[in-house]
Design brief:
- By secondary structure, the protein is an alpha/beta fold.
- It is built from 15 helices and twelve strands.
- It folds into two domains: 173 residues, Glucose-6-phosphate isomerase like protein, domain 1 (Rossmann fold, 3-Layer(aba) Sandwich); 120 residues, CBS-domain (Roll).
- Strands 2-1-3-4-5 form a five-stranded parallel β-sheet, sandwiched between helices. It has a four-stranded mixed β-sheet with strand order 6-7-8-9. It has a three-stranded mixed β-sheet with strand order 10-11-12.
- α14 links the parallel β10 and β11.
- The protein starts with 8 loop residues before the first helix and ends with a helix.
């Protein structure tokens, strides 16, 4: 007979924890699904107001809504829509001066009755600034004052007492992301634009262009097709790329490349009697200057024979060379 151990207090506590977690996630998923269903013209009006503003997007909120507001402002700024967070409690003590003509204000408050927002609400009404409200109660003070209402669906908070902002703050956060991405797409925000705003970190590294790290000018290992192999080898050794490019003398088009592998394949007593044209491999792999450095890495590692360098062509003319080590130094892997 196999004895079964009775569940311990830790086992029971662990199951209870998992149950609580699943309950929270289920309610927040329910909230996001409900939010998705009710999106309407008000959302596009909000995107339009932010897209056409001559100023910035000012995001505000108190407490947990304030934390979400800070994140929304950060996401907007990093995706091409200048934005900043203003603390409603400081607004009436001088920080209203941060808001300028042409700005759009986005105010977050689940109840819509946050007293600290009163100074900002009054300021937008006095100076006729567009006011977008993200809130749960459209019949509130904020709801009645706002020009555009983004109303959250009535889904219970995940807190067992129904008090701590959980489901509502998750919906606010998701709605902020939706606004930022819709704005990004409407403005045609590109990977180049993203790289300008994110020069550091992994995202910035992934968006580095070949043109930013390639070698140009006299450092490029280039030879004419009629050069003797003795001089080709000297050039290959001096330039330290492990290859040379064979180029046309008039248009600088790339006719082929000679690598260490090509030298080994042609290694015999007649090697030095040959010209670059005799030894080169035609139609080599190349890359565009505006290609991502990550594309260069993939190209070098592609096929059965990985290579360590790519010549960079612009309109079929050689303009640079990029080595795998250049990509690695730039943090592109």
């Amino acid at each position: 007979m196999n004895a079964r151990h009775a569940p311990t207090a830790a086992d029971i506590g662990g199951e209870r924890d998992l149950g609580a977690a699943r309950h929270v996630l289920a309610l927040e998923i329910r909230g996001l699904e409900a939010l998705n269903r009710i999106l309407d013209r008000a959302f596009t009006d909000a995107v339009g107001a932010m897209a056409t503003t001559a100023g910035r997007v000012v995001v505000t909120g108190m407490g947990k809504s304030g934390h979400i507001a800070r994140k929304i402002a950060s996401t907007l700024s990093s995706t091409g829509s200048p934005a900043f967070y203003i603390h409603p409690g400081e607004a009436g003590h001088g920080d209203l001066g941060m808001i300028a003509a042409g700005d759009v204000v986005v105010a977050l408050s689940n109840s819509g009755e946050t007293p600290e927002l009163s100074a900002i609400i009054a300021f937008t009404r006095r100076f006729e600034l567009p006011l977008i409200a993200i809130l749960g109660n459209p019949d509130s003070t904020l709801g009645e004052a706002a020009d555009i209402l983004l109303t959250l669906p009535a889904v219970p908070e995940a807190c067992p007492m129904g008090l701590a902002p959980t489901t509502s703050s998750t919906m606010m956060l998701a709605l902020g992301d939706a606004l930022a991405v819709a704005l990004l797409e409407r403005r045609g925000f590109s990977p180049d634009d993203f790289h300008v705003l994110h020069p550091d970190g992994k995202l910035g590294q992934r968006l580095i262009r070949v043109s930013e790290i390639m070698h140009t000018g006299d450092v490029m290992p280039l030879v004419p097709p009629n050069m003797g192999m003795a001089d080709v080898i000297v050039t290959m050794t001096a330039k330290s790329f492990g290859c040379v490019g064979v180029i046309g003398e008039r248009n600088r088009e790339l006719l082929g490349v000679i690598t260490d592998g090509d030298l080994r394949r042609h290694m015999d007593e007649k090697l030095l009697d040959r010209s670059a044209r005799d030894v080169m491999t035609p139609n080599p792999r190349t890359i565009r200057p505006q290609a991502l450095a990550a594309e260069a890495v993939r190209s070098m590692n592609a096929h059965d024979r990985p290579i360590t360098s790519l010549f960079v062509l612009d309109r079929d003319r050689v303009v640079g060379i990029v080595h795998i080590h250049d990509c690695l130094r730039a943090g592109v892997v």
